[in-house]
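Could someone model zinc ion with this protein?
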Amino acid sequence: MKITFKRIVSLILCVAMLFSVCSAGSFAAENESIITVSCEEDLKNIDENIPIVFITGLEGEFYKGLSTETEEDYVRIWGPETGVILKTVFKYALPLTFRLLIKDYDGINKISAEVANSLFGDFACDENGVPNPDTGKKDTSDYDYNYGFGYSKSYNFVYDWRLDMLTIAAQLDEYINYVMELTSTDKVALVAMSMGTAVLSTYLYEYYYTAEDYAERNHIAAAVFVAGAFNGVATCEDSFSGNMSFDSTSLMRMMSEVMKGTGSEGIYKVLEVLYCFGMLDPVVNYANNLVKDIFANGFNDAACDSIATIPGFYALMSSERYEETREYIFDTPEKKAKFAKIIEVSDYYHNNVQANSAKVIQSMLDDGINTAIIAEYGLTIVPITSDNDRMSDGTIATDRESFGATCAEVDGTLGDGYKQAKVCACGKSHISADNQIDASTCAFPDITWFGKYLRHTCGEEFVGDLVDLIVYSDEQTTVWTYAEYPQYLVNLDGEKIVPLTADNAGEVIPYEETTAIKKFF
Ligand SMILES: [Zn+2]
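Reply:
Sure, complex below.
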């Protein structure tokens, strides 16, 4: 009897112990914060054996006078010289205000076209989307020796972003061949930032995904997309399609973000008081009505002589907004015929490249090509879009950069009772510690990182080590690989990123509740 009792007790103890071990195990698997592997050793031992080609974003100054002999001939045409801007303002401000007051839309359109021509005329392309050959960038990608490997020694691919994506991708291919020859390698890693991700998507579609000779060439080791424009940029697509809107709250929220610590706090405080008493609303409403009127009364005609001739802009749109823009800008059979080439290359980008970009990434993962997406968040988008509350990195919306993350509004959360939208194959939590992002709805949740308060940057101090760990690893690095680089990271000091945790996430406070008047009452 006694022996039976002891056996029963020990059996119960065994079961209890087994149960506790199992449940601790499953708890660890479910808890995202438990990643015990440090990247320190791997970083030290990285075998940097291939060059990184970095594809820049929409940047750089453009000049005219490139085909002439001396430096003095260079005249900056993008961004426009301050003198040119001032001259344009002085010349057109008064007549434009007068036409606006009397609602003379023909006059407004004529002046708008002249303003656009004065500011961007030299920068525009012809009706086939080809820039004037005497215009372009001064800086070129002229490395002429083996500069080295790793993110800090990337070979920058600098390009004329006015061109269509297919033309730029062909130039990138030439550049990649040049870099491989220079470094005596037969592989390359491709890292792209912002607009560069549209170029990279096009390159991968043309020279990897649909390339019949790829198996033979086999030259791509890794692809990393940082703060990507590849799924469209609201500030561009909305300002071409007439879906712009202004509102005082997002305008003030953006000001509060960018004016912090710049010495302009005094100006901000004045604006805040005006905002709290509703005195900015009439100005904002006026601007909304004005833009609506201008778009309804011939902005498309004015744009056709300048900015609408630049194919690069059409690659910075979602396919839906691109189609809307195309029908708005090229609204007559005559215009469709005249600008047929621009429409053709833009249609191609949207129907082939953008439509297949997720499939291309999946194919790379299947082929063992290291791939990663780094999205950024926590900041107000430039508030000229159809939804200025959307989460962004200040320039591009986070759901677009991340291929479909579920995002709270920029100063809101997903809500107290929020449950992860999808069960991921990894079985772990994809919700951020600040409850602002759910990555489970991303196309690739386990290879998509998020950096909070990174203002549309690809700075080496922030993403350099992570990119090197991804590029030079023998196997695919995921958001579950390293303790230092979990899915969610935050820039707290402007110098580095650290894991975002419940402890450092801070409280998310809607902008209105942070204003002086609100606090006072
Ligand atoms: Zn997962």
